[in-house]
Design goal:
The complex is a heterodimer of chains A (about 350) and B (about 325). Helices cover about 45% and strands about 15% of the residues of chain A. With about 350 residues, chain A is of the alpha/beta class. Chain A contains 13 helices and 12 strands. In chain A, helix 4 runs parallel beside helix 5. The longest helix of chain A is centred in the N-terminal third of the chain and has 22 residues. By secondary structure, chain B is mainly α. Helix content of chain B is about 70%, strand content about 5%. The longest helix of chain B is centred in the C-terminal third of the chain and has 27 residues. Classes of the chains: A alpha/beta (about 350), B mainly alpha (about 325). At the A-B interface, strand 7, helix 8 and helix 9 of A face helix 2, helix 10 and helix 12 of B.
């Protein structure tokens, strides 16, 4: 009886053995791997930018889509097209739709603050990009505007030392926009330390390249010995640079500005429209955003309960001569390149 | 040739006083370089005001001019850009013609709604601005900022070149003003425009084809705006459709009203546009030289618009006729 049973076991094992050998896996299994995929599979992430259609938001969205969609994350896009009101409505309706995370691009520090608090209470992770709200949420990913203002101004002042006219002009964006107001603080931080520098023109061009061009033309007429210009955004400062170049003064007037670091900005460096272009590295920001979303969704923390993190972007100071060396780390990107490869 | 009405005289005096004041008190204001810069910076605004003036003379208003300008021009640059239609590789000049056809069709729609549907132009054009922008952005234009293709050098010459030391946009503005002046004063079309502005009903009774003329007026205005858009793009090698959301349309109205083209229609001409453009140009230039903040600049512009409308109402008081027909 016993012997029979043993024979049977041996027979069964013998039958299974070759099979077993065939299915034997090499290497070792990663026990945390499934957790990563299952934490992301089927999740919904909403993106509420200021507007689509310009390099920053197109770049972030393309980058996030590329990183998250293959993992089974559904991306939802709500484009309020520069209307803070439409943006508020979009967030309100998202709160009732309950995606797992919202990535939001604030128009200013106040408008969305209450809504973002409400979203986190409703159990939605909120990640803010490039513009902070007065209400800090789980994470902020973006540029440190004050640092940008300081960096850009310092670059201009470095060129406008003793022996030059030490006259500079400032071309701001929209006065009420926080990105502009913070940069201005950075500018004044540096100016305080350099009392010799004279600001001969400090005008707001409304993020509008045509206005920037007209203002700069007048300023150059008035101050032909102008030494440098502090610009606040590359999309606007193509007008500033065009006015300088047309006046035949791009050798004398130093123009520094900042932006997302895309190909058009690099082209403007090549064409001597800009002298310095401080990039906040949109491909890097897109990766930061995707990774923050991934880690929030895996953490299991309740939205708004764990520590709040800020990830300030590493800035890249691009010039005509050094930009080639930054291309490997994402500078001079296009939306197509972010969406594919 | 130009009979100055009281209002125009007032504006002329105001312009001269401000101009003289700036020349005395602002260093380097009265220099050839600065005066050319002054004119150049408002020449696009001036061209748009030519478009608006024709509509206002016919007792209408066109709030969709900026949308036409931006979307038409952006469409032209998108159609010829290598990224969008790599297979066709459309030369820029053909893209410009396609952009023109697009704007002409939409402006004809505006005109038909105003003329045949009897709707107030202020509402039609307000709605059409949204339609034009929305259609353009959804169907063709992905990015707000659109760069001109390489073969647009001729346009860049128009936008930033010079002829005998005078920037091309100034020359374009003055040429266009002369052409429009001839069209309004020497042709039957022009006489019809004034008669419709005076009284649409009387014009119709007198046998003026009011409705077709109204449609033509909107197409004409849209075409001039499209040209202004091409010049804008030529000046900075790119066009940003976000300007649709800006306050430029109010600047255009400011020029037209300040220049003395009465909002009750049938009055004024190209000399008003030039006068208005010069006044606004002088002010803008002076305010930048004085480094006045953006908010205060807007305040000053707003006050001037109010004063101009008040003068308009004072000098052209409402009588029975205007009350019956209402304003635009």
């Amino acid at each position: 009886m016993k012997f029979k049973a043993l024979k049977l076991i041996i027979a069964v094992v013998a039958m299974l053995l070759p099979l077993n050998a065939q299915a034997e896996k090499m290497g070792i299994a990663d026990p945390a791997r499934d957790k990563y995929y299952s934490a992301l599979e089927g999740k919904k992430v909403a993106f509420v930018p200021l507007a689509m259609g310009f390099d920053l938001t197109e770049g972030w969205y393309a980058g996030m889509k590329k990183a998250l969609e293959p993992l089974g994350v559904e991306m939802i896009l709500r484009d309020p097209n520069w209307s803070a009101d439409a943006g508020s409505k979009a967030i309100s309706s998202l709160i009732s739709e309950k995606p797992d995370a919202i990535v939001v691009h604030n128009p200013d520090v106040q408008t969305y603050a209450k809504l973002l608090r409400k979203a986190e209470k409703a159990g939605i992770h909120v990640v803010q990009v490039n513009m902070k709200s007065a209400f800090p949420t789980d994470a902020f990913v973006g540029a440190d505007w004050i640092e940008i203002g300081e960096l850009v101004t310092q670059k201009v002042i470095d060129q406008c030392g003793a022996g030059t006219s030490q006259k500079i002009a400032i071309v701001q964006g929209v006065l009420t926009a926080a990105a502009s107001a913070y940069q201005l603080r950075g500018v004044s931080n540096i100016l305080e330390k350099n009392p010799n520098i004279k600001v001969v023109s400090n005008q707001a061009a409304d993020w509008d390249s045509t206005k920037a061009r007209a203002i700069t033309e007048t300023t150059l007429q008035q101050h032909p010995d102008l030494c440098g210009i502090v610009g606040f955004w590359d999309g606007m400062d193509i007008g500033t640079g065009a006015a300088v170049k047309e006046a035949g003064m791009h050798e004398k007037v130093f123009l520094a500005t900042s932006g997302g670091g895309g190909k058009t900005g690099c082209d403007n460096l090549k064409n001597d429209i800009f002298d310095v272009f401080v990039s906040y590295d949109v491909p890097g920001q897109a990766r930061d955003l995707s990774n923050v979303v991934k880690s929030l969704l895996q953490s299991g923390n309740k939205p708004g309960k764990a520590g709040k993190v800020s990830l300030f972007t590493q800035l890249q100071t691009l010039t005509k001569d050094n930009m080639a060396s930054y291309m490997g780390s994402g500078a001079c990107w296009t939306v197509e390149s972010l969406a594919s490869n | 040739m130009f009979k100055l009405r009281n209002q125009e005289l007032i504006i002329l005096i105001v312009t001269v006083v401000i101009f003289a004041g700036f020349s005395v008190f602002l260093d380097k204001f009265f220099s050839t370089g600065n005066l050319l810069t002054l004119m150049r910076s408002v020449s696009i605004l001036g061209i748009l005001s030519i478009a608006m003036a024709v509509v206002v003379i016919s007792k209408g208003i066109d709030l969709s001019l900026i949308a036409t300008l931006a979307v038409g021009t952006a469409l032209a640059s998108v159609l010829s850009s290598a990224d969008v239609l790599p297979s066709i590789d459309l030369p820029f000049i053909y893209a410009v013609i396609l952009g023109f056809i697009f704007t002409a069709i939409l402006c004809a729609m505006t005109g038909i709604l105003v003329a045949y549907w009897d709707m107030a132009s202020v509402f039609v054009t307000l709605a059409m601005a949204g339609v034009i922008y929305g259609l353009g952005r959804t169907l063709f234009i992905r990015d707000e900022l659109n760069y001109l293709p390489e073969d647009a050098a001729w346009l860049e010459y128009l936008g930033r070149g010079q002829l005998f030391g005078v920037p091309m946009p100034i020359i374009c503005f003055l040429m266009l003003a002369i052409i429009m002046h001839l069209l309004l004063t020497k042709t039957t079309f022009g006489k019809f425009v004034y008669s419709i502005g005076d009284s649409g009903l009387a014009a119709r009774t007198a046998g003026v084809p009011v409705r077709p003329i109204l449609v033509m007026i909107f197409i004409l205005a849209g075409t001039v705006a499209y040209f202004a858009g091409l010049l804008t793009a030529g000046a900075i090698s790119s066009i940003n459709t976000r300007m649709v959301a800006g306050s430029m349309i109010y600047d255009v109205l400011l020029v037209v009203v300040v220049g003395g083209i009465g909002l009750s229609g049938g009055k004024g001409g190209m000399h008003n546009v030039i006068l208005g453009t010069l006044l606004i140009g002088t002010l803008l230039n002076g305010m930048v030289i004085m480094d006045i903040s953006f908010i205060v600049q807007n305040l000053i512009k707003g006050i001037i618009l109010l004063l101009a409308i008040m003068t308009d109402t004072l000098l052209n008081p409402r009588d029975e006729q205007t009350t019956q027909q209402g304003d635009i």
